[in-house]
Predict the structure of YtxH domain-containing protein.
Amino acid sequence: MKGKILLVVGLGVGYVLGARAGRERYEDIKRMTERFWGDPRVQKQVHHAEDFVKDKAPDVAEFLVDGAKKVVSQVSGSKPAAKRTTRTTKASGSAASGS
C-alpha cells in the first residue's frame, strides 16, 4: 500500500513539474519563433516566395487544367462500357425483384 501511495505522489509531482517546464519551454520556443519570423531577412525571403508563387500560379493552373482534360477524355472514352455494365446490373436487379 505504501508503494502505491508513493507511486501516485511521484506521478503527481512529476506531472506538475513537467507541466511547468513544458509551459516555460513552449513560451521560449514561441518567443524564438516570433523573433525569427519578424527578422527582416526572413520577411524578405517570404516576399520573394510570394512573388514567385504569384508569377507561376497561372502556369500551374493551366498545366493542371490540361492534365485534368486529358484524364477526363481518357476516362470518358472507357466509361460507356462501365455504364453499360452498371445498367445491365440494375436492369437484372429490377427484373429479379419484379419476378
